[in-house]
Amino acid sequence: MSMDFQATLKILGKQAKKEAEQHRIEAVEAKKHEEEQVDFAKAVGAVRPLKNSQRYETPRPKTNLKPRPKTENSLSEEDYFYVGRDNWDEPPASFSKNGQGKNDIQRLRNGHYPVVADVDLHGYTQEEAQQVLNGFIEFTKKRGVCGEIVHGSGLGSSGYKPVLKNMTRRWLMQHPDVLAYVEPRQGNDGAVRILLKRPRREE
């Protein structure tokens, strides 16, 4: 009887060691993943809001796009991309250009692309958020093709209408450098993971 008990203890001991080692490996990988990500807001610092011009700019055509400056670290005001303040309908949970790119959406969901930067838009007005998004796109493009944007679910908005969420997703749908976005975590619609076009190599 005691032999069976000793054998059981050995088995339990081995299982405990195996589980402890597995937890250690997972903790190391999680820490490594966290270190690889860059917090855009911390890296860039405080945002200075642009003057509210109340202007509406139609989406830029795909042809004859105005080239962005290559020698400057930040965009000038006229290079910023904006969408109007229309009462947007609820945008889709996932999106890809021209209704295609199912592989892009699936890869984004599966974590195929490393998230190189993230930003939280809580506390910004619509115009300030668009300013931040413009800078975030450029910041992310210099480091990779995938970033994560936290815009919130909008449950605390007036009339329970998600203003920032709707604006952010419509902005992403119209931006020429954004190929796709998805909700990174099932059951949480307060964030999106985005896929950007790869920069063209200069010849």
How would you explain this protein's 3D organization?
- This protein is α+β, with helices and mostly antiparallel strands and 203 residues long.
- The protein has a domain at 99-196: Ribosomal Protein S8, Chain: A, domain 1, CATH 3.30.1370.
- It contains 5 helices and 5 strands, in the order H-H-E-H-E-H-E-H-E-E.
- It is elongated and about 75 Å long.
- The protein has helices spanning 2-36, 40-44, 102-110, 126-141, 163-174, and strands at 95-96, 117-120, 146-150, 178-182, 191-196.
- 22% of the residues are buried.
- InterPro entries: Smr_dom, Smr_dom_sf.
- It comes from Neisseria iguanae.
- This is Smr domain protein.
Could you list the spans in which at least 5 consecutive residues all have pLDDT below 50? 53-73
Mean of residue pLDDT values: 77
Helix content: 25-40%
Counting helices, strands and paired strands, the structural category is alpha+beta
Distance between the termini: 78 Å
How would you describe the shape?
elongated
Write down the secondary-structure element order.
Answer: HHEHEHEHEE
What's the CATH C level of the domain at 99-196? Alpha Beta
Order of strands across the main sheet:
1-4-5-3-2
The helix tally amounts to 5
% residues in beta strands: 5-15%
What is the CATH topology classification name of the domain at 99-196? Ribosomal Protein S8, Chain: A, domain 1
Largest sheet: 5 strands, mixed
